């Protein structure tokens, strides 16, 4: 299972686009970047560590030597890389359920994209355009992006608390410790092995 | 810069793989087999280049034919895709790869067109940048902490939960003392290793890579 | 209030068990092996007139009968190979083979199951419900006679189930002492009142019934398509899938744990018990009444499941990892609850074994627990998902690897966090070193066909494309 390392799944997908559509997509991404709406939705879904879209124009495949044959392509290609948590089905179900509009704006320029709703033809298309990862490294395999965010909040709260914790009187400490617990209590989930991915 | 999001850099490199019909086993195949055997835990080369969050290497055989009315077409070369997400700037990262895991870099990129070797670090960095593809849109859920800070935070989270549960109901003075001792222990513990999966066995993964 | 909708479902073609909870105090689940195909078909033919449908009752019958089949059972009836292979993969595999996904390991692994489940011998589930033991016996004797006469099936095991009686009255309680049965999903076309909180949450805060296709095959589901179903259409339509799990309850272990933790939890034992589940033991939801039981709310169907978690994201009323919040997160994950809508299951559980009141000694070796049954259009997307991602894991709830305290496969490890406030009666608190309060003793996946499909199967007339 080379697509998975701990709780992260490495998805790669490549789709062809007619070159006249590429500038439109670049503009859409620019708008997404500028208005932060897609970024906000992705953060709220909280499934993805890092994801990127990379457009490779038909003449932009690296050509480094005269011995390497030059590509002669009809289409531009968009490659999507995602590092996400959860199973393949869960990930796509969630996107189809709540981010359909955003997904459509990105992929409608790819040839034969069926739309992200309903979900079954959408999954069929992804299976067609997805290709497998040969090697995947994860610096925190036991943690999802939720776990990471929770841990950073806990560390932050602890950094503030420990500055004062030893200088307080026991009674003051008791109150401060309680306040500290209330701050970190939503973020104390354990890390470990992911459920089996499908 | 579309390659960056906060402190995180998203690097995408497409290195053309050498096509040589004379070989018994083609470069792309050798590369695949090599990657399959490499450790993916704290023994991974990327654990040494410790500013790496998540990195992948993928042999791209060809583009996809999605079916009529789309046209069928094919790539003339195969490409090694290197997608990595790391702290800090690009030059530092590439230099670290050349300096800290030169054997791995050589074993991988020797199969690629135009690879100049790692002895001349600047030449290597130039080569990699020549194969870099600009990211069009980069999403990073967490973009303001380093790998090291993140790993320490995860350890803190786990240790703290354990401490809290164990010491529920302690009287305040005692709790304060124990908490002080706990903080000292946290500070003196060795830093967690990137890529460490020990203690866990996921049935989804190939046990050979644990 | 009944909402108008355009979905018409043919209740006379759908088995009643799929459409309503029968509210009988007695049940027996006859687990059968099918014999020679022709005889099995005859057996099925003779049963057909007695199968309870979803039609409204003028007068409640004294007993009901419903039937469902494992994949192996369908094979015994010699359904065409193409049809058999068109069933969803998880149903074809059966529940035992899905152990990795369901985390049925250690104490829940098949080596601890009843032989009949461990050996995967069950072909048919006959669900017999009755208002009295006499009616139950009469019904079951008749069925055994039909089996004898046709030589179509053999009884492997008869699983008794019975409501828990308190003060000589049947209750909807289960063995840990909680009132059960709230929050079953409403779906379009079902002829019962839409109870606020049971359907899906709308943007304006109201509740609407879920799409029929989440629970019945052949109807549009929440994703706007027909659910994956076996072919031919006539076999699948008006049918559904059922999971059956015999869950042994370690009542002694649970009570000991609750007592021990209840002593150090400042809110007290009853409150801690409520925090485990998200409802007080009488059924009052913590979200609506965080400080105590409230019989008025429990009695009122417009209130007893009418709540959301949007104003309690911190979990200080109902803990983030509480059982009902895990099993049905409602709007807890944002996006107006859309991430929950396709993960709902219709529960039909029934306790089994002798009830021991709190305070009396109880032996956890004795047979006692709940026969958990749930219906859904997709075992993979609904039941299996909830079990794998929300019960045995906690990432969606941002609780990491923490499992559901009540039913999780803890093996002595794991923890449950009770989020609190600075109110001394509601402080933050952690319960760790969790034993298995529940242990799996077997079960399987079943297909519950429509009456039309049963006719087809009985006459050998299933014709795939």
Structural class of chain C: alpha+beta
What is the 3D form of chain C? Answer: globular
How many β strands of chain C by DSSP? 15
Low-confidence runs of at least 5 consecutive residues of chain B:
200-210
What do you see in this structure?
- The complex is a heterotrimer of chains A (198), B (210) and C (465).
- Chain A is α+β, with helices and mostly antiparallel strands and 198 residues long.
- Chain A folds into two domains: 4-131, no CATH class; 145-187.
- Chain A has seven helices and six strands, in the order E-E-H-H-E-E-H-H-H-E-E-H-H.
- The longest helix of chain A has 21 residues, at 145-165.
- In chain A, 52% of the residues are buried.
- Chain B is an alpha+beta fold.
- Chain B has two domains: 4-130, Alpha-Beta Plaits (2-Layer Sandwich); 147-209, no CATH class.
- Chain B contains seven helices and five strands; from the N terminus they run ββααββαααβαα.
- In chain B, a hairpin with a 2-residue loop joins strand 1 and strand 2 (8-16).
- The two termini of chain B are 37 Å apart.
- With 465 residues, chain C is α+β, with helices and mostly antiparallel strands.
- Chain C has a domain at 16-245 and 443-459.
- Chain C has helices at residues 16-19, 37-47, 71-76, 81-85, 89-93, 99-102, 115-118, 133-150, 233-236, 251-264, 269-277, 295-299, 323-327, 383-391, 451-459, and strands spanning 26-34, 63-69, 124-130, 153-162, 164-166, 169-171, 200-201, 207-208, 240-249, 346-347, 350-353, 368-376, 415-418, 429-432, 438-448.
- In chain C, strands 9, 10, 11, 12 and 15 form a five-stranded antiparallel sheet that branches. Chain C has a four-stranded antiparallel sheet with strand order 2-3-1-4. Chain C has a two-stranded antiparallel ribbon with strand order 5-6.
- In chain C, strand 5 (164-166) and strand 6 form a beta hairpin.
- The two termini of chain C are 43 Å apart.
- The chains are: A alpha+beta (198), B alpha+beta (210), C alpha+beta (465).
- Chains in contact: A-B, A-C, B-C.
């Amino acid at each position: 299972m080379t697509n998975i390392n701990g709780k992260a799944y490495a998805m790669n997908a490549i789709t062809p686009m007619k070159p006249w559509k590429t500038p439109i997509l670049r503009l859409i991404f620019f708008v997404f970047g500028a208005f932060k709406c897609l970024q906000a939705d992705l953060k709220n879904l909280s499934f993805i560590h890092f994801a990127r879209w990379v457009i490779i124009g038909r003449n932009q495949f690296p050509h480094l030597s005269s011995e390497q044959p030059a590509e002669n392509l009809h289409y531009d290609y968009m490659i999507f890389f995602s590092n996400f948590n959860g199973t393949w089905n869960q990930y796509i179900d969630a996107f189809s359920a709540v981010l359909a509009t955003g997904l459509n704006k990105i992929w409608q320029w790819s040839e034969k994209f069926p739309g992200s709703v309903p979900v079954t033809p959408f999954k069929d298309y992804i299976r067609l355009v997805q290709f497998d990862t040969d090697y995947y490294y994860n610096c925190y395999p036991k943690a999802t992006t939720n776990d990471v965010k929770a841990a950073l909040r806990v560390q932050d709260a602890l950094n503030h608390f420990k500055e004062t914790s030893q200088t307080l009187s026991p009674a003051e400490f008791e109150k401060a410790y309680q306040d500290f617990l209330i701050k970190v209590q939503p973020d104390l989930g354990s890390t470990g092995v992911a459920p089996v991915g499908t | 810069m579309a390659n960056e999001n906060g402190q995180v850099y998203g690097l995408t490199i497409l290195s053309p793989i050498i096509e040589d019909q004379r070989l018994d086993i083609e470069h792309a195949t050798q590369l695949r087999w090599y990657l399959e055997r490499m450790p993916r835990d704290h023994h991974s080369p990327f654990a040494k280049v410790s500013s790496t969050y998540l990195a992948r290497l993928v042999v791209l055989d060809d583009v996809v034919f999605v079916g009529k009315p789309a046209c069928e077409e094919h790539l003339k070369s195969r490409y090694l895709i290197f997608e990595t997400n790391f702290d800090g700037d690009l030059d530092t990262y590439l230099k670290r790869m050349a300096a800290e895991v030169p054997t791995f870099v050589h074993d991988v990129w020797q199969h690629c067109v135009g690879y100049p070797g790692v002895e001349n670090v600047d030449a290597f960095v130039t080569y990699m940048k020549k194969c870099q593809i600009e990211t069009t849109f980069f999403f990073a859920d967490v973009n303001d902490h380093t790998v090291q800070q993140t790993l320490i935070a995860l350890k803190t989270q786990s240790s703290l939960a354990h401490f809290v549960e164990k010491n529920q109901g302690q009287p305040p003075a005692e709790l304060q003392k124990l908490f002080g001792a706990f903080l000292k222990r946290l500070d003196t513990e060795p830093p967690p290793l990137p890529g460490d999966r020990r203690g866990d066995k996921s049935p989804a993964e190939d046990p050979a890579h644990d | 209030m009944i909402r108008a909708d355009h979905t018409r479902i043919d209740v006379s073609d759908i088995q009643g068990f799929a459409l309503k909870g029968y509210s009988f105090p007695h049940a027996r689940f006859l687990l059968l092996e099918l014999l020679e195909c022709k005889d099995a078909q005859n057996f099925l033919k003779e049963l057909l007139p007695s199968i309870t449908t979803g039609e409204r009752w003028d007068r409640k019958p004294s007993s009901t009968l419903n039937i469902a089949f494992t994949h192996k059972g369908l094979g015994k009836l010699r359904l065409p190979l193409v049809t058999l292979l068109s069933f969803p993969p998880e149903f074809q595999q059966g529940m035992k083979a899905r152990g990795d996904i369901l985390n049925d390991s250690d104490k829940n692994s098949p080596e601890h199951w009843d032989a009949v489940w461990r050996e995967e011998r069950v072909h048919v589930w006959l669900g017999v419900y009755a208002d009295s033991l006499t009616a139950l016996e009469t019904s079951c004797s008749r069925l055994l006679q039909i089996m004898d006469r046709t030589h179509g099936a053999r009884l492997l095991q008869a699983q008794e189930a019975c409501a828990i009686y308190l003060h000589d009255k049947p209750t909807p309680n289960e063995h840990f002492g909680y009132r059960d049965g709230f929050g079953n999903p409403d779906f379009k076309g079902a002829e019962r009142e839409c109870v606020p909180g049971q359907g899906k949450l709308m943007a304006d805060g109201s509740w609407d019934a879920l799409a029929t296709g989440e629970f019945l095959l052949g109807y549009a589901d929440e994703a706007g398509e027909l659910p994956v179903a076996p072919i031919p259409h006539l076999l699948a339509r008006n049918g559904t899938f059922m999971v059956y799990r015999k869950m042994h309850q370690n009542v002694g272990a649970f009570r000991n744990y609750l007592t021990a933790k209840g002593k150090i939890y400042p809110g007290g034992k009853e409150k801690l018990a409520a925090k485990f589940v998200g409802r007080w033991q009488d059924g009052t939801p913590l979200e609506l009444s965080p400080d105590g039981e409230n019989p008025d709310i429990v009695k009122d169907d417009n209130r007893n499941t009418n709540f959301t978690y949007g104003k309690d994201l911190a979990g200080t009323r109902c803990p983030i990892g509480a059982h009902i919040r895990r099993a049905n997160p409602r709007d807890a994950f944002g996006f107006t609850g859309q991430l929950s809508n396709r993960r709902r299951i219709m529960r039909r559980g029934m306790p089994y074994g002798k009830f021991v009141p709190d305070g009396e000694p109880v032996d956890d070796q004795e047979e006692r627990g709940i026969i958990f049954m749930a219906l859904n259009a997709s075992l993979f997307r609904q039941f299996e998902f909830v079990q794998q991602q929300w019960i045995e894991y906690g990432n969606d709830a941002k609780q990491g690897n923490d499992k559901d305290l009540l039913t999780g496969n803890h093996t002595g490890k794991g923890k449950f966090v009770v989020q609190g406030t600075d109110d001394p009666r509601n402080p933050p608190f952690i319960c760790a070193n969790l034993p298995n309060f529940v242990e799996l003793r077997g079960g399987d996946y079943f297909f519950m066909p429509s009456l039309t499909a049963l006719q087809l199967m009985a006459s050998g007339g299933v014709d795939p494309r």
